[in-house]
Structure formats: structure tokens, C-alpha cells
Design a protein that fits this description.
It comes from Candidatus Methanodesulfokora washburnensis. This is DUF2283 domain-containing protein. By secondary structure, the chain is of the alpha+beta class. It has one domain. The chain is built from 1 helix and 5 strands. The radius of gyration is 16 Å and the shape is flat.
Length: 80
């Protein structure tokens, strides 16, 4: 499974899913992060509340833009 990242702008929640499968436990941390655990006790997901207020949405946008530039550069080299 590929890493899944979703953002809900109405709720301002960023969800990062690391593994497939159902969660058997969740833990709310002090910084408004919810960790989801699988049956083996491994972190399977993270939900970050108030993500835009924490600057995470802008950081992900900038990361996506830089990756897009890298991908374009690599594709241009293939076509040479």
C-alpha cells in the first residue's frame, strides 16, 4: 500500500494512513494528534487536528510542488 494523505478543509483535519487494515486502538496526544494502532500495536494512521493552523497544509503543499519539479526534471532527462 502506498502512503495515503488526505486533508478535509472543513474540519481542518489532515489524515495520514500508513498501513491498510482496521484500527484496534486510538490514542489522542496532547498536541491534537490522534494515533491509530493496528492489531499488532503498530502505528497505522495519524490524524492531525487544526492542521492548517499548525502550518502543516502549507508545508505539504510546498513539498508536493518541489516533488512535481523533480518529477518534471527527471521526465525531461528521459526524453533527451
Amino acid at each position: 500500500m502506498d502512503l495515503i494523505i488526505r486533508y478535509d478543509p472543513e474540519a481542518d483535519v489532515l489524515v495520514i494512513k500508513l498501513k491498510e487494515g482496521s484500527l484496534v486502538d486510538e490514542e489522542l496526544l496532547d498536541n491534537d494528534v490522534i494515533l491509530g494502532y493496528d492489531s499488532e500495536g503498530n502505528i497505522a494512521s495519524m490524524e492531525i487536528l487544526d492542521a492548517s493552523r499548525k502550518g502543516l497544509v502549507n508545508a505539504l503543499f510546498e513539498l508536493a510542488k518541489s516533488r512535481k519539479k523533480e518529477a518534471r526534471f527527471l521526465l525531461s532527462k528521459i526524453n533527451d
